[in-house]
From TrEMBL:
Protein species of origin: Mycobacterium simiae
Stored InterPro entries: Calcineurin-like_PHP, DNA_Repair-Maintenance_Comp, Metallo-depent_PP-like, Mre11_N, UCP033093_metalloPase
Domain Calcineurin-like phosphoesterase: 1-164
Alphabetical list of PANTHER family matching this protein: COMPONENT OF ATP-DEPENDENT DSDNA EXONUCLEASE, NUCLEASE SBCCD SUBUNIT D
Protein name per its UniProtKB record: Nuclease SbcCD subunit D
MF terms in GO: exonuclease activity
Keywords annotated in UniProt: Exonuclease, Hydrolase, Nuclease
Stored SUPFAM superfamilies: Metallo-dependent phosphatases (SSF56300)
Family as reported in the entry's similarity comment: Belongs to the SbcD family.
Superkingdom of this protein's organism: Bacteria
């Protein structure tokens, strides 16, 4: 038996830093990742798809988002099982119970809207742990496993949330306790745990049967999500009493959210940064967050700004990671002597240079003014 394990589609997601046409393209890419499941399912001959929570970004969605999402799921062509998660819980305002969803939900889409066992076909069951609020007060997995007895069937757990061994706040009541999950696997109450919530592909424990698929399209930078953009192809041998599991991770995501650390002190460093950015492919689907450190002359800072302006037009987004950027700008001796400025204007430039060497807010303003002057004089253009 083979199926696709995916999660955290978060359809309707927006990223605050994306502007212009980048946001619509990113939203379309998230739908495209889901639409691509049709091709993948046909390629591997998957029987069905499980989505382990957070199908939607939240419950208050525009009708267009709901309609387009359901149409994409319809096109997958095989059964798709949706688990409500913390972003789209089964609360009073649930997207799954709204009139539009109810009216347009295709026949191949099934919402796992109650905890416990759901029959997929004879000999195959899904054990679901849906969220009914954004802040459960218990381990929902422990609740659905409690009282479950072994049977001559193949069972998949579909659940959402953090696992205690991976979460720094181990006292949270909603955390999934790995020890209980592994006991259920050892006792063959379940044979695989399809988890959602962690957006990076992650194996939990050593059994090889507990996985986060991660989000099929990136949602955060690489310091948070190490391996986003995957769907798991899961094989369970139903003919073997031990039900061995095989996992094949397939990359389907196309966008990248990258963090680039760079030390810039000289014009050569800026040229190297320019070359590194130039060599990056798929710029229109790449978000770059720069963590820059160093000490620059005003001339070099103007060249750096020109470089960043250039690539900000080419990438989906490019900007400074302010918390991790420390750039000191100090005017060099004689840096402005060749501008051909005299009289009152020269005195004003000298005053700006003096002010720019201070560390207060006026110094920052003076640095910006001098950099603009150099760019207007065509000396700081990269």
């Amino acid at each position: 038996m083979r199926f696709l394990h995916t999660a955290d589609w978060q359809l309707g997601m927006t990223r605050h830093f994306l502007a212009g046409d980048a946001q619509p393209r990113y939203s379309a890419a998230r739908r495209d990742a889901v639409a691509g499941l049709k091709t993948l399912a046909a390629e591997v001959d998957a029987e069905f798809v499980v989505v382990a929570g957070d199908v939607f970004e939240h419950n208050q969605l525009a009708p267009q988002v709901i309609g387009q999402s359901l149409e994409v799921m319809r096109a997958i062509g095989i059964p798709v099982y949706l688990l409500p998660g913390n972003h789209d819980p089964l609360d009073a305002s649930s997207v799954y119970t709204c009139a539009l969803f109810q009216a347009e939900c295709p026949d191949n889409v099934v919402v796992l809207d109650r905890p416990g066992v759901h029959e997929v076909r004879p000999g195959l069951q899904i054990v679901a742990a849906p969220w009914r609020s954004k802040a459960p007060t218990t381990d929902l997995v422990a609740e659905v496993l409690d009282g479950l007895s072994a049977a001559d069937v193949t069972r998949l757990l579909v659940a959402h949330g953090g696992v205690d061994v991976l979460d720094p706040d181990r006292g949270r009541p909603s955390l999934i306790r790995l020890a209980g999950l592994e006991r259920a696997l050892a006792d063959r109450l379940i044979h695989y745990a399809a988890l959602g919530d962690k957006h990076s592909r992650t194996q939990v424990g050593d059994s090889g049967r507990v996985w986060y698929s991660g989000s099929p399209e990136v949602t955060n930078f690489d310091d948070v999500e190490a391996e986003p953009g995957y769907v798991l192809v899961v094989d369970i041998d139903e003919t073997d009493p031990k039900h061995p599991v095989t996992i094949d991770a397939r990359r389907v995501g196309r966008w990248r959210f990258l963090t680039l650390h760079s030390h810039v002190d000289t014009s050569r460093d800026i040229a190297d940064l320019d070359m590194n950015l130039d060599l990056m492919t798929d710029k229109e689907r790449t978000v770059v967050r720069l963590a820059l450190t160093g000490s620059l002359t005003v001339t070099d800072r103007a060249a750096l700004d020109a470089c960043l302006d250039k690539y900000a037009r080419l990438f989906a987004w490019l900007g400074l990671w302010e918390r991790h950027t420390q750039l000191a700008v100090m005017p060099a001796d004689g840096e402005f002597s060749g501008l051909g400025i005299g009289g009152f204007a020269a005195a004003a430039v000298d005053e700006l240079v003096h002010t720019a060497r201070t560390s207060d807010e006026s110094g920052v303003d003076a640095q910006a003014a001098l950099a603009l002057l150099l760019r207007l004089a065509d000396r700081g253009v990269a």
